[in-house]
Each structure stands twice: as structure tokens, then as C-alpha cells.
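User: quick one, sequence for these C-alpha cells?
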């Protein structure tokens, strides 16, 4: 792992900057995105993973990473 990726703030910035809803259309011919590691009705289904596309949150996390000297 690259040392810069040890920054939790930078990893969260990257996670929020990715619009996963486009993956299904672009890569898999219109399939819907996975929103959980497990399928309903298994306990734990529907938990918030991965973070949703949110450019404002991505910028906030990137600013925090810069403030901590990670970037």
C-alpha cells in the first residue's frame, strides 16, 4: 500500500468522489450497483457501504487530509 493511502481522510475523499451508479451502465450493460456485501434477508444487509457519491463531502475530506499533511 502506498504510504499516502494510510490517511483515512484521503480514503474517504476518494470513496465519496466515485459515482458508483455509473458503473452498471458503463461496465455491465445497465445492471444495478451493489449497495451491500450481503443480500436481504441476511442480517447486515442494507448497511451503508460504500459511501454515496457526494462531491461536497469528498472536498471536505480532501481538505482534512491536506490539513493533516497526508497529501
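Assistant:
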Amino acid at each position: 500500500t502506498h504510504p499516502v493511502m494510510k490517511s483515512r481522510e484521503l480514503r474517504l475523499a476518494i470513496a465519496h468522489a466515485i459515482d458508483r451508479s455509473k458503473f452498471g451502465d458503463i461496465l455491465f450493460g445497465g445492471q444495478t450497483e451493489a449497495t451491500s456485501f450481503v443480500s436481504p434477508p441476511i442480517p447486515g444487509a442494507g448497511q451503508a457501504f460504500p459511501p454515496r457519491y457526494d462531491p461536497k463531502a469528498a472536498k471536505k475530506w480532501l481538505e482534512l487530509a491536506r490539513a493533516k499533511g497526508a497529501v
